[in-house]
Design a protein that fits this description.
The protein is mostly beta strands and 184 residues long. It contains 2 helices and 9 strands. The protein has one domain (2-182).
Length: 184
């Protein structure tokens, strides 16, 4: 269990995102192309029993200088390495439309709806997996520290209001994300 917690923390802390979210102000009437941002994130965790790799591409647009909206996509590959039974591999995927509001220069509020289609080991049939879908509404806030013109460091804490201890793909209702952003 300690390894699983360590893997989860490692995935959250090693996530790297690449998107535009700097200090630049939008011009009076920016073109749509100037308001778009692209990017994504990477995550991973490895132990003797579980290996996980995650990819999170995203696309968004600044609606106003303080408000942005977009969608993040999720793909996660997980492999369980068992010693006395066959290894299990699982593929999870989903989409998360989001909205962010910049409260201050470095503080923002974030809300998202997440649809996640995920696999879990079947408790009744060893070596098999079940596929489930889970919908989450998450909200919270974060801190963004610019480093240069189009780069920065962020930390975000979200609360999953749809958390269900039995059916949720998450171990806790608290979702922590941290990383480095760099604009394109």
């Amino acid at each position: 269990m300690k390894k699983l917690i360590l893997v989860s923390v490692l995935c959250a802390c090693t996530s790297m995102a690449f998107a535009q979210w700097g200090e630049e102000e939008l011009s009076e009437k920016p073109k749509f192309k100037e308001r778009l941002f692209f990017g994504g994130g990477l995550g991973g965790g490895f132990s003797s029993t579980i290996s996980s790799i995650s990819v999170y591409p995203l696309v968004g647009a600044q609606v106003t200088p303080r408000l942005a909206t977009g969608a993040q996509f999720t793909y996660r590959f997980t492999k369980y390495n068992y010693t006395n039974s066959p290894d299990l591999t699982m593929n999870d995927y989903g989409v998360s439309p989001f909205v962010r509001f910049k409260v201050f220069q470095t503080v923002f509020l974030h809300a998202e709806y997440e649809y996640l289609n995920y696999q879990i080991p079947d408790p009744t049939n060893q070596g098999e997996v079940d596929r489930k879908a889970f919908n989450s509404f998450m909200a919270g806030g974060g801190f963004f520290q610019p480093v240069g013109r189009r780069a920065g460091i962020f930390f975000m804490a979200l609360y999953n209001f749809s958390y269900d201890q039995i059916n949720s793909p998450y171990a806790s209702p608290l979702v922590i994300r941290a990383g480095i952003t760099a604009g394109f």
